[in-house]
Design brief:
Blueprint: E1 6-9, E2 12-14, E3 20-22, H1 37-40, E4 47-49, H2 51-66, E5 70-75, H3 80-89, E6 110-116, H4 134-141, H5 146-151, H6 166-180, E7 184-186, E8 189-194, E9 205-208, E10 214-219
Parallel strand pairs: 3-5
Antiparallel strand pairs: 1-10, 2-4, 5-6, 6-8, 7-8, 9-10
The protein binds zinc ion (ZN).
Residues 75, 105, 110, 112, 192 line the site of zinc ion.
Length: 222
């Protein structure tokens, strides 16, 4: 790619503080790929978001604090090279977006997250973020998708088994808080929230250099 065609952009890094816990699931091996893809591409356990998304998190902060809750962020900006590496590991159709262009994470306009209590313990939800379960991760590596596909139903808002259960209540509270802060929910993944008007957020490429510096780019118009 021609470097002159790229325009540098600024993303905001969100760090662990009294309200947010940064625990990027692809920076470790506790994820459906059981591979630390974000380490491979040089991002590590770092959470970068579009400045507009950082604004929504700012709005969210007092809403969480009032309730003694925290937000554990498990994914945010996803480097394009990480996206394609992930698709290579799990080629199952529909597991990841079709292209990086289709994934809001690659535009820095989405986060995957879960509510925790003040001690950082995850509240109960119908399944874990990304529907992660080591048992299914193992099966997927062996090319068996069926049980996981069934389990993935729990990711959807339409999954309502035991309607009054704690996990359904938490899911409702979570969505309400996120929407109040300006996020948009995704019907088939309770943990995923993105900014509205995705047409405003171009695909972002990055260059992870040694020494912890990460540069972000969009394609220029010239
Ligand atoms: Zn997501």
């Amino acid at each position: 790619m021609n470097k002159q065609m790229k325009k540098m952009v600024r993303l905001v890094e969100i760090k662990t503080d009294e309200t947010f816990i940064i625990d990027m699931m692809y920076a470790g091996t506790e994820n459906m790929m059981q591979t630390a893809v974000y380490q491979e591409v040089g991002l590590g356990n770092r959470c970068f978001v579009h400045p507009d998304l950082a604004q929504c998190l700012k709005k969210l902060q007092p809403l969480l604090q009032e309730r003694g809750l925290k937000l554990k962020i498990c994914d945010a900006y996803r480097p394009v090279q990480a996206f394609y590496r992930m698709k290579e590991i799990i080629p199952m159709q529909g597991f990841f977006a079709a292209t990086a262009e289709c994934s809001q994470h690659c535009h820095a306009s989405a986060i995957d997250a879960v509510l925790t209590d003040s001690d950082g313990c995850e509240l109960k939800f119908p399944c874990r973020v990304d529907a992660y379960d080591p048992k299914y991760a193992q099966q997927i590596r062996q090319g068996q998708w069926d049980e996981f596909r069934h389990h993935l139903e729990k990711a959807k808002y339409s999954w309502n088994e035991g309607e009054n259960s704690e996990s359904i209540k938490n899911r409702t509270i979570f969505r309400e808080l996120m929407e109040q802060a300006g996020f948009e929910a995704l019907e088939h993944e309770w943990w995923h929230f993105n900014l509205p008007h995705k047409e405003n957020y171009p695909l972002i490429d990055c260059e992870c250099t040694k020494g912890n510096e990460i540069k972000f780019f969009v394609e220029g118009n010239t």
